[in-house]
Amino acid sequence: MTLQTAGIHHITAFARSPQENVDFYAGVLGLRLVKKTINFDAPEVYHLYFGNEQGSPGTIITFFPFPGSRKGRIGGGQTGITSYAVPPRSLDFWEERLGSFGVPVVKSVRFSEQVLQFSDNEGLRLELVEREEGLASTWSFGGIPVDKAIKGFAGAVLYSVNSAKTIEALESILGLKKVDSTDEYVRFRAHGEIGNVIDVRLANMDWGSGGAGTVHHIAWRAKHFDEHEAWRTKVTEHGYQPTPVIDRQYFNAVYFREAGGILFEIATDPPGFAVDENTGALGEKLMLPEWYEPQRAQIEANLLPIKVREREAKVK
């Protein structure tokens, strides 16, 4: 079996305020809150998932919003920039929209593509890029028309403490193909249509530090459970020590830290986010795995209330 990931499954980051997190990703960016659950290893902390209407792999950014947590520092061993794909001819709309919410933007060009770069309320670095490929959004919220709405991930920019080793992992383990390079970056592509373009910054960077405003890990797609086992074997054969397969309720996960310092996860596409909720009601209720259900009252009492709500622009 030749293993090649289709691209990014999800990206998980740290935050502080859960309501401000919802306000930014749902209220400003117009993503759907598709799952409201807890950090299975720290049930006093939410685990919030934002994506497209169905919560499809390649569209999901997740957060652990821990009030009072430390501020992180973006650097080596991290996903430095999370890139979102928007439809062609929509960057002007997004520049105006972000500006109306007081979000500063910077226009930049990488590999002949114009990107609109900005940061979220915690300092997490994001960008928008126009892409033809990828299914159009079917989700509209907060005044964002579907023909301008975020499709999902365009990809990511990886910051490494050893870029040669990170590049080796992308090519030899994940099966990504090198498609272009400059003095600053090398670009790789996976075979999927979303979350499929990965840029590696060539300059080795000093280590970043985890905390609010930084990415914890980037997850890559496995088609199904049998393939997932094969992925774990492949990672081991390349000299890494992956975790055992971990049931994350909505996907199975295997983690390993590649030699450039970035925490990689390989996650299964199934079973998906509709396994315990109707698709039309995703994200409306706090969902708990069965082993936490007996503690529901205590868990809910320890979590700050959150609400998906439309935001009013700061600048008219």
From TrEMBL:
Keywords: Dioxygenase, Oxidoreductase. GO terms for molecular function: dioxygenase activity. It comes from the Bacteria. PROSITE patterns: VOC. Residues 7-131, 152-269 form the VOC domain. It holds the Pfam family Glyoxalase. PANTHER family: RING-CLEAVING DIOXYGENASE MHQE-RELATED. This is Ring-cleaving dioxygenase. It comes from Paenibacillus oceani. The lineage of its organism: Bacteria, Bacillati, Bacillota, Bacilli, Bacillales.
